[in-house]
Write a structure and sequence with these properties.
By secondary structure, the chain is an alpha/beta fold. α5 packs across α9. The radius of gyration is 21 Å and the shape is globular.
């Protein structure tokens, strides 16, 4: 029998989606499942985006340019200039099929097999998958829930740099922790990548989701690292358009863009209808985001308040995005999450969690932690936390 590749065997399952069969069985027997496992916002997509697709005048649904529509990229550049990244132009942008493809293009463009990339963990789980697919090794910088996932001194990054190191990757604000990098931390990282001639990749897809009056600082605003900086972006969360599958790779480094374009040409083009919707979404009024941030801030505060009523747990309080990591008084969060779906309910209702071990690359880290996405309404969040509270009273490892 033909064998599967080592790379295929090593490809990790998604901790966000791997328990879907358990969820489907729970639904099939009539349980209500509150999905805290996946960052699928329940916020309505902007009307201007949806209307653009409804009223299109296309006669042929044709390919677009491999790098994405020129007009769309011009407007994306204007969006970046709106928050201070004044140097970005259309030719610095490649439109991708989601932020995931932008990351794969970046990995493929700047790293060879067995090269290393430094990433603070816990991190977005698919970074593990992208590294395996690219034959790249992750070198983790570990942060702890006891310190609210604050980074260790930036100088700790420098200790991990080896001849094989090609890049540092951050998610800002972070998925799954909600950690928000300060301007000073970004500046220190900028100094490190300049000193060691590395790339700095920033996954900034949650840029708009910042709380408590704090400020977001993009690496695109940092002077002197234009040739080092690569930004990964997406419309998925910003406009609640996860199904559009539109992202961007952004860099002033012409060799990075030239190389990534070859990957883009190999997959032909990003989806045309989705670009139409995403281009229109750039017209979304500021009031839309004001209401969204107000709602997520309320949900975050409510979730943390309710979780703190549960004895024996630890909570990483997020300053951005819409996730938090919770450490539970159990040994194995994955087994607990399965049990919640298969063997437990409160009046026919249960919850689906994302086991957090999959958000680490270090073995045996995060085994008793879960990621919670607070993308549900107030009533559902309160019910979900109550279900979690009742489950922990009776669960036996």
């Amino acid at each position: 029998m033909p064998s599967i590749s080592k790379k295929g065997n090593n490809m990790p399952e998604s901790p966000i989606r791997k328990l879907v069969p358990y969820s489907e069985k729970a639904h099939a027997i009539g349980k209500t499942v509150y999905h805290l496992n996946i960052g699928q916002p329940d916020i309505k997509s902007p009307e201007v985006a949806m209307d653009a697709v409804k009223i299109h005048s296309l006669d042929v649904l044709a390919y677009s340019r491999s790098e994405g529509s020129h007009d769309y990229r011009v407007k994306i550049a204007e969006y970046y200039k709106g928050f201070g990244a004044t140097q970005i132009e259309a030719e610095d942008i490649i439109v991708t099929t989601g932020g995931s493809e932008a990351l794969l293009f970046a990995f493929g463009s700047i790293m060879d097999v067995d090269d290393e990339i430094i990433i603070p963990e816990p991190f977005y789980a698919n970074y593990n998958g992208f590294s395996v697919a690219s034959g790249v090794n992750i070198v983790p910088v570990i942060s702890k829930i006891e310190n609210n996932f604050a980074l260790p001194p930036i100088e700790e990054f420098e200790k991990l740099i080896s001849p094989k190191t090609k890049a540092i990757l951050i998610c800002n604000p972070g998925n799954p922790t909600g950690y928000l990098y300060s301007k000073e931390e970004i500046q220190k990282l900028a100094e490190i990548v300049k000193k060691h001639d590395l790339f700095l990749i920033a996954d900034e897809v949650y840029r708009e989701f910042i709380y408590d009056g704090k400020k977001f600082h993009s690496i695109l605003k940092e002077k002197g690292i234009e040739q080092h900086a690569i930004v990964i972006d997406s419309v998925s969360k910003r406009y609640s358009m996860c199904g559009a599958r539109i992202g961007y790779l952004v860099s002033k480094n012409k060799e990075v863009i030239k190389t990534a374009l070859k990957y883009a040409q190999a997959r032909l083009s990003p989806p045309t209808f989705a670009q139409i919707a995403s281009e229109a979404a750039l017209q979304t009024p500021a009031s839309y985001f004001e209401e969204v941030i107000k709602e997520y801030s309320h949900r975050r505060n409510l979730l943390i308040e309710e979780l703190r009523k549960i004895e024996g747990i630890k909570i990483g309080v997020p300053n951005g995005a819409f996730y938090c990591i919770v450490e539970l008084p159990i040994k194995n969060a994955e087994e607990f999450a399965k049990w919640l779906l298969s063997d437990f309910d409160v009046d026919g209702e249960t919850v689906m969690l994302a086991p957090a071990a999959g958000f680490y690359s270090s073995p045996n880290e995060g085994l008793n932690q879960v990621r919670i996405a607070y993308v549900l309404n107030e009533e559902s969040l309160i019910k979900s936390v109550n279900i979690l509270k009742e489950a922990l009273k009776v669960y036996k490892d």
